[in-house]
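Chain and backbone:
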Amino acid sequence: MNNQRDARQTRNAAPDLQPAIVNVDPINAVLDAWRRERPELDLTAVGLVARLSRAVLLLGPLQEKVFVDHGLHRGEFDVLATLRRSGAPYVLTPSELAATLMLSRGGMTARLDRLEAAGLVDRALDPDNRASFRITLTSAGFEVIDAAMTAHTANLTELVSDLSPTEQVSLDALLSSLLGHLSRR
């Protein structure tokens, strides 16, 4: 316990804001090496961004497993989820889907081809614009995305369960603030 407290107190940021489990954080070794070599640098932001990046790398495969269990890849889950949360009648154009998911039209077409072949979406000409299509969530797609979303929510809840509810709310607020600032750059 004293080693953890001592390690936290030697870091650049305030000791009470440091990770509680110092010995399992590989970022600390990198930061300690840089502090030794470049003690004049404030490495707070380096540690923060490195930890965010590492969390994304660790969370990705743990999320993907749920999608695979439902016969989906992440991108397919994203398309179905976007259609589902659009509300009845669960219809969007490929352009609307691509804009929401920040994808190229080509990337969207490949996803839609796979989902249509699996019977999870229907693609039909838009009667109001014959140059476009309308993508509709099928009843099978509705069932798959509802089951996948339920499992995804339970999985994410489990993955962050080592944080207290207060820590989860605080982290969510901080990340939301950071994303807001970054999106305005």
